[in-house]
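In this section we walk through a basic example: taking a raw amino acid sequence and producing a predicted 3D structure, encoded as discrete structure tokens. The instruction is simple. Fold the sequence below.
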Amino acid sequence: MKKILALLFLTVCLFSRNANAQEIRLNVYTAYAFDDKFDSYYDSYNYYEGTIKGGLQYGGGLEYVINHHTGVELIYLGLNTTAPTIYNESYAGGYKSADFDINLNYVMLGGNRHFGQPEKKIDPFAGLMAGAVFVNIDNPENGGSGSATKFAWGLKLGTDIWLSEKIAIKLLGQMVSATQSMGGSVYFGTGGTGAGVSAYSSFYQFSLGGGLAFKLGSGAK
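The resulting token sequence is shown next.
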């Protein structure tokens, strides 16, 4: 987490140096992320299935607007939730269940396409994102924990409603996915790092929400 904050702070400093000459937008995001199920069956004696529970997804982004229709954005998204899970590992004595504490932190680079006109207050947009998710899971049943960094990607669709030249309300729907991020004894087993379910499961989280956009600097006309 400290590395994420350091990266974001460095990016803010670099972007701020050019804010007076170019249009830089600070985007603030809040949304509700819906439940998503995950499962993996290695064989009849080694499997797991569970649900990442929905919750408040928060974050922010710095968007460099190349021209009115195109922007590049560095994005952070976070979610603290739980994952009720049942699993069976032959080496660990069979069927078990636990309600895991899970923390997801995404850092991604995205491209945004804006469809509105400069003189209009309504500015629809769509975007694609790719980067990494930092996964941390704690097992309250046995005190075990694990972490990993996995490839992540996402897409979003929404609109900016400009209240003034500098401030807009954002309405947003998006989906983020982490590839092969859930599974293995580090996450759901009883503690061993060399045994357990070897298959992995991707997950897809959909969210609806909004936020605010702030123009920094003079901005491109």
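Looking at the output, two observations stand out. Helices lie at 2-17, 185-188. The radius of gyration is 20 Å. In the next section we compare this with other chains.
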